[in-house]
Amino acid sequence: MEKYDIYRSPLEGRYPGERMKKLFSPRTRASTWRQLWLWLAEGEKELGLPISDQAIEQMAKNLTMTDQDFEIAAVEEKRRRHDVMAHVHAYGQAAPEAAGIIHWGATSCYVTDNADLIFLRDGLAILLPSLAAAILELSDFAGQNKDLPCLGYTHGQPAQLTTVGKRACLWIQDLLMDLRNLERARSDLRFRGVKGTVGTQASFLQIFKGDHEKVEALDEIVTRKAGFDSAFTISSQTYSRKIDVDVGHALASFGATCQRIGGDIRHLATFKEIEEPFEKEQIGSSAMAYKRNPMRSERMCSLGRQLDNLAQNPVHTYAAQWFERSLDDSAVRRSTLPEMFLTADALLILLRNICSGLVVYPAVIQRRIDEELPFMATENLIMAMVAKGHSRQDAHERIRVLSHEAAEQVKMHGKDNDLIERVKKDDFFAPIHNNIEHLLEPSSFVGRAPQQVEKFVGNDGEVQMALSKYRKVLASLERSEIDK
Predict the structure, then answer these.
(1) Active site residue 285
(2) Which of 72, 125, 162, 322 has the fewest beta carbons closer than 10 A?
(3) How far apart are CA 102 and CA 56, in angstroms?
(4) Which of 187, 285, 391, 443 is catalytic?
(5) Structure letter (DSSP) for residue 161
(6) Residue 21 main-chain phi, psi, to 5 deg
(7) Residue 290: pLDDT above 60?
(8) Residues 6+ apart with CB under 8 A from 248
C-alpha cells in the first residue's frame, strides 16, 4: 500500500525533529529491548550463570533490529499474541546460541518498562538544550529591546508603560520554570531494573539459589550498564505510573507556557507592534493576499493545547491501575508517551524559530503610546503643579474635566486624543507649560524596567546562571527552521 493511501500522524511527518522521531521509532524501541536482554545476560554470566561466550557474542552482533527481524517478529506475534515473546523468538533466531537464555528470569516489563525509562531520560535530554537555546535567543531579544517603551496591559486594557524587553522577560521567567521542571523530572528518574514478575525478584532469587547478594548485584550491574545512577528499591511488575504523571505534568506546563507566549505574540501582531518571522514567499491567506497571519504562534498554541490534553492520559492511567499491575495501561502508553515528547519537540522547534526572528515596529508602538500617554501622564501633570505651589485637589479637578472632554472627542467623534493640547491652552497650567514635553517623555514612565531586564538577562543574572551548564551544547546548535 502506498504511503499516501493510509493515515499518517502529523507528528510523524510534519512537526517534530528527526532525533525525537528516531528515539521513539519502532527500530529504536526493539533494538533497546535487545540491548536490555544483552545487559541482563552479561550480568548473569558475570555472576556465574552458565551462559557461553558465543551466546554473548551473537547477541552483541545482532543488537540492531533489521527489517527481516521485524517481519519475523510480526509473524510470531500474530501466532503468539504477545509482542515481547515474539521479539524473544526473533532475537533467538538471529542469535541461536543465546536462544535458550534470552529473557532468563525476566518478565515482559523488564524490557518494556526499562526501555520506556531510557526513552523518557533520553527524550528529556533532547528537549533540555533546545529549551535552553530558546531562552537564550529570547534573552538576546529582551536585552536588545530593554529600553524600548511600549504599552502595558491589564484586563486587556492599556495600563502603565513597560518595555518590549521587560515583557519578553515575563516569558523567559516562565520558561526558566519549565527548564527547572524538566531538569527535575529527568534527575528524578530511576531505573526499574531487575525485579521479576511482581517486583519481588523471586525468579532471580531462584536462579541464584537463594543468594540475595547476587540478585542485588545483578540489579546494580544492569542499572549501571543502562546509564542510571540508581534503580527503584520498590516496584511492582511495572515502574510506578506516577513517573509518567510527573514527566507529563512538566511537559504540559511547558506546553501551557508556549500557549501563553503564542497568545501574547498573536495579540501584538493584531496591534501591528510585533510580528513573528514571515518569509519572502510565505502566503498568509489563500483569499486575502495582503494578510500576514501569525501562523507559527497559532500552531504553537494549538500544539501546546494538545500537549496539555495528552498529559491527562498518564494521570487517568495511574489512577486506574490495580494492585501490582493491570494491562489497561499498555495501549494508551504506546501512543501517549511518544506523542507527548514529539509534541514538545515540535513546540520547541516553533518557539526557537519565533524567538530568533521576532520583528519589532517601534513607530507603531510609539503611535499607540501617543494615543494613550496623555491620560497616563495626568498624575505627572498634577504632581508638577503641586511642585509649583498649587493645590493638588484643584489640579486634579481641572485635569478631570479636560480628560473627560478629550475622551468624548476620541469615543464619540473618532478623533485623536487632544488632552495635552487642551492642557497647553489652559491658563491654569501655565506654570508647567514649558515643562510638559519633558513630563510626557515615555522613558520616564517605564520605571526600572530596563534595569530589571539587565539584571535578569545580563552577566551573572538568573538567566545566565540557569544556562551555564548548557554553554557547550548551545555553541553548536544551529538556528531552528520549520519546513511546513
Answers:
(1) yes
(2) 322
(3) 10
(4) 285
(5) E
(6) -65, -40
(7) no
(8) 310, 311, 313, 314, 315, 336, 340
From CA 318, how far away is CA 320, in angstroms rounded? Answer: 5
Please indicate whether residue 253 is annotated as part of the active site: no
- CA neighbor of 113 nearest in space, from 340, 327, 313, 339: 327
CA distance 252 to 172: 17
Exposure pattern of 426-443 as b/e (b: 16+ CB <10 Å)?
A: eeebeebeeebeebbebe
Strands 359-360 and 274-275, bridge-based pairing = antiparallel
Which residue carries 519578553 as its cell? Answer: 168
Q: 315 Cβ partners below 8 Å, 6+ apart?
A: 245, 248
Average pLDDT over all residues of the chain = 93
CA separation, residue 431 to residues 295, 336, 380, 402 (Å): 52, 69, 14, 17
Question: How far is 244 from 120, CA to CA, in rounded Å?
Answer: 9
- Length, in residues, of the chain: 484
Angle between helix 312-319 and 295-310 (nearest 10) = 0
**Residue 274 in 3-state DSSP?**
strand
Does the pLDDT at position 453 exceed 70?
A: yes
What is the percentage of the chain residues whose pLDDT exceeds 90? Answer: 81
Under DSSP, the state recorded for 48 is T
Is the pTM higher than 0.85?
yes
What does the pLDDT average to over 249-271?
97
Give the pLDDT confidence of 155-179 residue by residue, as tens digits.
Answer: 998 888 999 999 999 999 999 999 9
3-state secondary structure (DSSP) of residue 244: helix
CA 113 to chain centre: 24
